[in-house]
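Re: weekly structure request thread

Next one in the queue (273 aa):
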Amino acid sequence: MIDTHVHFWNYDPLRDNWITEDMYAIRKDFTPKNLMRVFNDLQISGCVAVQANQSEEENNFLLSLAEQSDLIKGIVGWIDLQSPNLEERLNYWSFFKLIKGWRHVLQAENEAFILNKDFINGIRKLKSYKYTYDLLVYHDQLTHLIKMVDQIPDQPFILDHCGKPNIKSGEIKDWTANIKILAQNPNVHCKVSGLLAEADWKNWTEAELFKIFDIIFENFGVKRVLYGSDWPVILISRPYSDWFNLISKYAERFTTEERSLLFGGNAKAFYSL
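Done, posted below.
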């Protein structure tokens, strides 16, 4: 089994100012050592480490951790897709085979950034290097995302955290409509991850989350959905095992083969692990 969405960091209150005071549970360092016990207990063999800092130094940091721990099976790093030196940087990083793809924190950007011609042209260059691209947006940015991915029809994309539906408010009508449109693109996959942060951290219900899972699996199908946690961010709500057990309970309705795809097979295929 593979967890396709894990973060590591040496906590820096200035750099990591997105970690607000009410997220006190994650205002500290996190390394692969913090995951070993829970992964062993749940028989998870490894993870994809996803960038949390927008600099190329983040790539070096994650690669250094991977040298120390074989839990990291792949890395989603950061690169400036609008840089005039992009081709040179892509060529440089292509020698580091653990880097499988890239991500930018689009949830912090506006429509003009997401649909910027130079940004889109940067993503177009990824296919020739066999890189994937992770899509991180809030639910109200999905319309921009749909316009963006439609301009790059042959690029493998994956939507992080199901497009961050507003579970806490229960207002998911627009999100549902946009997920249906986005999922029609066969090159877009989806991570069932990170949803506890979008719910009421301490009072979410199984029914709320299963409703989201229903919409994701109905539209993407089991073959395009990957298990992920968004650890350690999920710790603001519950322990890792609670999230894993929730997904496992929902997946009881699937065949053995489908569960194998959800928890590992799809990850290995998408990220070339």
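The chain has one domain: 2-270. The chain has a mean pLDDT of 95.
Next request, please.
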